[in-house]
Amino acid sequence: MNPINLFQTTSRIVMGAGCLGQIRDEIKRLGCDTAIIVTDPGVVAAGIAERLERILGEGGLCFTRFDKVSPDPNLETALEAVAAVRSSGARVVIGLGGGSAIDIAKIAALLAENDGQLGDYFGIDLVPRPGRKTIIVPTTAGTGSEVTPIVILSDEAEKLKKGVVSPYLFPSVALLDPELTIGLPPHVTAATGMDALIHGIEAFTSKNAYAITDMLARRAIVLIAGNIRTAFANGADIEARTRMLEGSLLAGMAFANAGVTAVHAFAYPIGAEFHIPHGVANSIMLAPVMEFNMLGNLKKFAEMADLLGENTAGLSERAMALATVQALRTLSADLQIPNHLSQFGIKSSDIPMLAQGVMKVTRLLANNPRVMTQKDAENIYLSVL
To answer: What domains appear along the chain, each with residue ranges and CATH number?
Structure first.
């Protein structure tokens, strides 16, 4: 018997080179005339925040800026942003940047209209009311957070990453301008691009995948795998940047509905404990987790070899699945992404604690195509130590 599936995504998506110039119209369409920009120091230093502010100013819109978002933002940063949104009186929150800035913008807009403690909302469907309007402007082709109902924050006290999942976190508008990604350094292009690819791969292999998410995930994998090397090697290639942003968007739509799996469950503890950038943490864990998982859905893991552009003529299904794993290792090497945990100071004595952290991420392990034990988690970590 086929299950009943629900598909949700951001209701309005504007995409194309130069579309940042339309943001005033989008704000007015939402019935708002005051805004707050939530961003990070890197986006400010790159001149992108000033570019946005110039567009807003030319339209006579009142705006303020909160630019204290750091990588892997914590609960304190989120609460500081909430206070900034409330005190600004802004009716629309503009998230400008990568996943960290976007997540802080989304949670700040949400909590500005909801009482209670932030900790009350960690989990699924625990938020009682919608937040303020949000317009999300990604500057990386990575998180797909412009089309997800999820925010991830670091709880430094517990050394865990925690999620708020609510349909009220879907942005009002996603505005994707590939011109904003032109200046990304190669290492950021690599890490964020791999994160987007992993979203597509995990959505495709999730136990909750279905026809719509499979369609989106397949296309996302093809787009990202076919363009990430070019975007990495020649960041000014607008065609590659456009296709990467499109792939990230589609992967975000896919995983927002099918969920991600154990790769992210492995990335969370090492990210929270050792502050490994999220895309890098995911990339390190990708191949070993995929090799473990492939027996859970050999057909799909085999199909991904073709999606990744591998020559599979004459290969058995299992050999094709292994070719997928090897293709991912080669891609990570081409993008010069670190491939060992020891490069970040992780020791064998840390592994049991990290594996315990994996097993706590039950929301994601429930989607995984293969049942995993703590011993399995320890062995997977050890394989990339």
So the answer is: 13-181 (3.40.50.1970), 186-383 (1.20.1090.10)
